[in-house]
Design brief:
Layout lengths: L1 H23 L3 H4 L43 E3 L17 E3 L21 E3 L23 E3 L18 E3 L21 E3 L23 E3 L18 E3 L21 E3 L20 E3 L17 E3 L10 H4 L13 E3 L13 H4 L5 E3 L2 E3 L5 E3 L4 E3 L4 H9 L22
Parallel strand pairs: 1-2, 2-3, 3-4, 4-5, 5-6, 6-7, 7-8, 8-9, 9-10, 10-11, 11-12, 12-13
Antiparallel strand pairs: 13-16, 14-15
Length: about 425
């Protein structure tokens, strides 16, 4: 028993020794040292001192007729001011907005110092081709985007700088396309030529083949009777609405495998080769308002099909979908078929062939000259799973089968 008492004294002696070491340790020896230069002292805010935000100088020059907001010091806004001439442009300006004025001429004098310009908007003016000084745009080596739509141009403007990426020329009177007009424009990705006077004779040369990076070309509302030749391999969006095209060559799209959206409504198509739209990346196809009488092959990638206002009396689903492959199913979700000559809805086999289909819009069908017919079911909707229903609700589809904001006469928006 005495031996156990001696053992119990050992922990008490050990604790006393540790306590004595703790009391004898001088903490100031460690924390009162000079701070290392590597770690600067923490800054403490002093309310009695006035702190000033550092000032970064910005260019202050601006044309008297225009507005240069301090928050966008590189932009000059001269739009909607009834200007008849282009004002002096300071050398630092990169974005110049001159739309909706009464400007008739583009002179080299206005751009003498404007070497930094990247974007010019001269749309909605009264500019004529012969009133543009030769080479005035070509000297702007940093220019990326040029807007000249809604003017009175009768010729494609050239020369243009090789830096240009987006060119908008719609709603003019362009009927001349010089042979060297597109030379050197290797960086152009968007070319908008809708609503002009272009015809087949103007496109006989290999105008577009040199545009190696072209992604989108808009040629709607012109006078074309045949498909434009020699479009570049890079093309993704093609807009040809409101022309007079009556035929598509069978192998036309072999050189355009990347096409994602094709719009050819309001033409004179009576028939198309069966496999002509067999494109592995095609998502949207619009051949409405033509004279087609029968269906054609639907590629598995296609999601939206517009064939309204044609002369189709019967839809052969087997032609559209000759086989079903569970490993590679069709992605078609929407078909618009109103204003044809259908007397009955298409076969329910369509729902097996196109398992993702949600809406088949029939609307009114063409009857006799004096009256139209209405199918019993103007809109057929497939029953959706809860997940598909939530996705459809996010798409804001309207009651009549048209997606919100959709317009028949719209061509591709410049920014896809």
């Amino acid at each position: 028993m005495g031996f156990l008492c001696q053992l119990s004294i050992i922990p008490l002696l050990f604790g006393a020794m540790v306590f004595c070491q703790h009391e004898g340790y001088d903490f100031e020896d460690e924390y009162d040292q000079e701070p290392d230069d590597e770690y600067p002292p923490i800054f403490h805010f002093n309310p009695s001192v006035e702190y000033v935000v550092p000032h970064f100088p910005t260019p202050a020059k601006c044309a008297q007729e225009c507005f240069c907001p301090p928050t966008f010091p590189l932009s000059m806004y001269c739009d909607h001011r009834k200007l008849k001439m282009i004002p002096h442009i300071p050398s630092h300006i990169q974005q110049l907005y001159l739309q909706h004025n009464d400007i008739k001429a583009v002179t080299a004098e206005s751009f003498v110092n404007a070497t930094a310009l990247r974007e010019i908007n001269l749309s909605h003016n009264k500019i004529k081709s012969h009133m543009i000084d030769h080479g005035v745009f070509a000297k702007l080596s940093n220019l990326v985007q040029l807007h000249l739509e809604h003017n009175k141009l009768d010729e494609f403007p050239f020369p243009l700088p090789s830096s240009l990426e987006r060119l908008f020329l719609s709603f003019n009177e362009i009927s001349r396309l010089p042979g060297n007009a597109l030379q050197g424009l290797v960086n152009v990705t968007i070319l908008d030529l809708c609503n002009n006077y272009l015809d087949d004779s103007l496109l006989k040369g290999k105008y577009f083949s040199n545009l190696k990076n072209l992604l989108q070309i808009n040629l709607c509302n012109n006078r074309l009777q045949t498909m434009p030749p020699d479009l570049p391999f890079s093309l993704i969006y093609l807009s040809l609405e409101n022309n007079s095209i009556s035929y598509i060559p069978e192998n036309y799209f072999n050189r355009l495998p990347k096409i994602t959206a094709l719009r050819m409504s309001h033409n004179n198509l009576q028939e198309v080769p069966y496999n002509v739209f067999n494109l592995s990346n095609l998502v949207e196809l619009n051949v409405g308002h033509n004279k087609l009488k029968q269906a054609f092959y639907i590629p598995r990638s296609l999601q939206h099909l517009y064939i309204e206002d044609n002369d189709i009396e019967f839809v052969n689903i087997t032609l559209m979908c000759p086989s079903i492959d569970p490993r590679n199913i069709n992605h078609l979700t929407y078909i618009r078929m109103d204003q044809n000559k259908l007397t009955a809805p298409i076969s329910t086999y369509a729902f097996f062939c196109f398992p993702h289909i949600r809406i088949i819009y029939y609307g009114e069908q063409k009857g006799s000259v004096s009256q139209s017919t209405q199918l019993r079911t103007p809109v057929v909707r497939r029953f959706l799973t809860p997940e598909e229903y939530d996705e459809a609700e996010d798409g804001h589809e309207t009651e009549d089968g048209h997606e919100e904001g959709e317009r028949e006469d719209d061509y591709f928006h410049p920014y896809f």
